[in-house]
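Why do we care about 3D structure at all? Because function follows from shape, and shape follows, mostly, from sequence. That is the central idea of this module. The next example makes it concrete: a single protein chain, its amino acid sequence, and then its structure expressed as tokens.
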Amino acid sequence: MTFEGFRPVRRTLVCTAGARTPLETVAMEPAPAAATPAPGPWRIDADHTAVRFIARHIGLAEVHGRFNRFEGTLWVAERLEDSRLDVVIETASIDTGVRQRDDHLRSAEFLNVAQYPYMQFTSDRFVHRGGPRWSVQGVLNLHGVSRNVSLDTRYLGIGTGIMGETRTACSATTELHREDFTLNWKSMIQRGIAMIGATIRIELDIQAVPQTQN
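And the structure:
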């Protein structure tokens, strides 16, 4: 038996044909905690980090994309719950692999990158959900609108890179409701074309290094 955040448990049962086999209560012990990052500022390593999104297109297939330019800092506190995260993403760096579509997404009808060149997420709470699971809660400013957002985060631990540098990593997901950020594109809806689904899934794979490391 396995469950994330707990030590696996293995039991042997003998079953007899035609007879009911009673099952004993199984107690699971918490797994050892993963090593935590040292307190202090950590820089998000853009070369080893991905900011991706998935949106439904015309109610059928999914469109996958990413943002290629961003930067951020994680301030690790002595008590992890008191840590902070700040990330800034350049909206014009949106990339779905189709130039015409990307130009349209950058236009005033969508992200309006000329007026809103950046989106920013600033955390205000780190909540431990058990095992490696955390909820990183904060405010996302996008398209001139600020909304509360919660990142469902899985902490992946500490490692060492090929150059001997210390690294920490996590993955995170959330869903954004596009109309919360006034991205409702009414002209298309009025024509009966639901081009983009109501929600957009965000997927993050993040690596960070101590701010003092190059």
